[in-house]
Design brief:
Layout: H1 2-14, H2 20-44, H3 47-60
Protein name: Reverse transcriptase zinc-binding domain-containing protein
Organism: Brassica cretica
Length: about 70
């Protein structure tokens, strides 16, 4: 399912109007945005982050989540 969605999104990006270099640049920018969002998600769900969060909560009694 995810692969099919990525394929459709890629086709939509390639069908954007403009010169080929602009479409390529737009695709690279979208990939960078998705990568940074994925990296942030992975960092927030990593075992080290959870360990630090629960350590802080246990020792201070304050929840630092946003």
């Amino acid at each position: 399912m995810a692969a099919a969605n990525a394929f459709l999104a890629s086709n939509r990006m390639q069908s954007l109007p403009g010169p080929p270099w602009r479409r390529k640049l737009q695709l690279i920018v979208w990939q960078a945005v998705i990568y940074s969002i994925w990296q942030e998600r992975n960092a927030l769900t990593s075992p080290q982050h959870c360990k630090n969060h629960y350590y802080h909560l246990f020792h201070t009694g304050q929840n630092d989540s946003k």
